[in-house]
TrEMBL record:
This is DNA-binding response regulator. The modification 4-aspartylphosphate is found at residue 55. The keyword Transcription does not apply. It comes from Chryseobacterium elymi. PROSITE patterns: HTH_LYTTR (PS50930), RESPONSE_REGULATORY (PS50110).
């Protein structure tokens, strides 16, 4: 039997996942957790399961907080409505990342992926896991931003560019610029390469919002929506930039 724990603060979602997992007779649910505090206590006092299904945004924080305080060797399948946490997930033994609403075929695929790790579970380290999952991860399609005490979902297709200012990375839309939790290096890894390109150390731009490209005396890009600062293409990026434009 595969001992399994569900971390989910919404009871209907927890019950639905439990029903879906009942289709896998090899899975035995040994615990259900609803908060970060409860999770830290549970993992501190109980034998860790082989498999964990975990939502990310809980009522008292992020489920990442549990595993940063109580490291686990169990494999984690994250279940969430937001895909902006993929990079953080890969650092914490994640083997899959299911976006809600969870589909039967996606859940089945995630369970099968877990089974493929079992034979080597004693020798496969977290770094090996990250390398394996990195090959399969999907691109970022939406970003969760905080506005005061509210949260807002921004689709990446609405984002003209990402830019760094005072060590904070912002995303620019037609409405305004929103601060994010990403670094530009992280974004380079998870944004759709055909749409987004890093023109310099400060900017990643979306090809859908390019208005004009100046080539003299240096390459400069005018975007439909952008901060006041001009966007220039680094000299060492010009060749790649031109290839990206026609790619």
């Amino acid at each position: 039997m595969i001992k399994t724990v569900i971390i989910e603060d919404e009871k209907p979602a927890s019950r639905k996942l439990e029903r879906m997992l009942s289709n896998f007779p090899e899975i035995e649910i040994v615990g259900k957790i609803e908060s970060v505090e409860e999770g830290i206590n549970w993992f501190s006092e109980n034998e860790h399961p082989q498999l964990i299904f975990s939502d990310i945004v809980l009522g008292d924080g992020l489920s990442f907080d549990i595993f940063e305080k109580v490291p686990t060797k169990g494999f984690i399948i994250y279940t969430t409505a937001f895909d902006q946490y993929t990079l953080k997930a890969f650092k914490l033994n994640s083997i899959d990342y299911l976006l809600k609403p969870i589909l039967e075929e996606d859940l089945s695929g995630a369970v099968e992926k877990f089974k493929s790790f079992i034979p080597a579970s004693n020798t496969t380290g977290s770094e090996d896991i990250k390398q394996l999952i990195r090959k399969e991860r999907s691109t970022l399609s939406r970003v969760l931003v905080k506005i005061g005490y509210n949260l807002k979902i921004v689709q990446t297709q609405e984002i003209s560019c990402f830019f760094s200012e005072n060590k904070i990375v912002y995303l620019q839309t037609g409405e305004r610029a929103y601060p994010s939790d990403f670094t530009l290096d992280e974004l380079e890894d998870i944004l759709e390469e055909k749409k987004f390109f890093r023109v310099n150390r400060q900017f990643i731009i979306n090809s859908d919002y390019i208005k004009n490209i100046h080539t003299s005396p240096y390459y400069k890009v005018d975007m439909e929506f952008q901060p006041l600062e001009e966007i220039t293409v680094s000299r060492d990026r010009v060749k790649d930039f031109k290839e990206w434009l026609v790619g």
